[in-house]
Amino acid sequence: MEMTAQAEQPPLHPAPAAEIRLSPDALADERQRVLEITALGRAHGLDDRARSAIGAGTSVESFSAQVFQALRDTGKIRLAESPEIGMSETEISKFSFRKAILAAHDPASARQIAPLEFEASLAAQAKRSNSRPERGGAITIPSDVLARGIFCQRSEVMGALGALRNAFGGRGVAYRDMTVGSATGGGNTVGTDILGTDFISLLRNALVIDRLGATFLRDLNGNVAIPSHSAAVTGYWVSENGAPTESAPTVGQVTLAPNTVAAWCDYGRRLMLQSSIDIEAFLRADLAATLAQMIQAAVINGAGSDEPTGILQTSGIGSVAGGTNGAAPTYEHMVDLESAVAAANADVGTLAFLTNAKVRGKLRKTQEFSGTDGDPVYTSGREPGLGTILGYDAWVTNSVPSTLTKGSASGVCSAILFGNFSDLILGFWGGLDITVDPYSLSTTGARRVVAFQEVDVAIKRVASFAAMKDALTT
Description:
single chain; Major capsid protein gp5 fold
């Protein structure tokens, strides 16, 4: 039997292991990845998961997503849910503040008095989170209505008025009727049409926070925690074959939790029942303006007890002192405020000055350089009420305090703020609660209406602001 010769095969040897060399840049990136994952794990009590992620080669972005999911699973954070209840434009236009208040006054008949408002209130209360306390007998104005405004019908001829937007800076649209020249010439046959939007308004402090560029977080549910990078990894120069000292970035949080602001107004019984004033626009504007004033004052100088901590009360912002007993503000003080923010590398974003009318008047009469007949420190800006200091917008509102104390200057010092106002965060939770008190004014038949809103204030980076708190204006 003839055998077929087989070709001789070469002996098998294992392939040599490839030597992996990381470039200096790749090595630095890997160290950075390890440091950041370690810091994230340590900050949130997930050290074991961080070590596993490092070993698996997980990217920082992927590990951040894992951390977020873990915190969400444990209930430490929760995603924001829209508090809107899904009202149509027609339903929003028909929603009546007046009917809502009357319904709150008579809970037993609320469904008959204001069926739309009652059902919308129940839906709004069901949507909000457990962090928002319930108030017995209260009617809740849904976020749908607050966000889109109320269109007030005055008469068949006038049609719909423009919507009152929100608590900060909303503008209504008014139309003035033609008038009859004389009573005997026909004027007596014409009914009087009182323009609700021309109602003589109470003089209030200017609302400027939204125009300064603050960040508004509306329609929140639950507490909010925003991760912040508060300190970077430390770099080192090393010798050949030397190793840098280990360091890690500092990861913090900026938190927001609801604080309740409340205001009350008294309304006469006849006003609620048959007033010829545009009661919807009047009620909304009155309540909104009152709450807005309180919120703005807290944003600027809130003490942090039962109210948000304001900018002036925030620890760590830059400080410029006038003197032991205060001092008149000067050009040098304005430069020092700018420098305090710039020295912290925070002179970016929406930079502006904010002060009160007393300081504005003083700076209008103060030269940039004394004795040179030069420009005043405060000059007029591009619109009324807006000025310029050092080339930055300078806003004015008497919500900035003028009754501070420094040394022997008791209750006469004003504040001046400078900073990046886009780093200022205002958070709002849910709708507006309205409760009616029928007892306090029962002998007159008037109604006391109390409004509640949840709000908080936070600053992303405290270095973004500097303040002078001892400016003397007299």
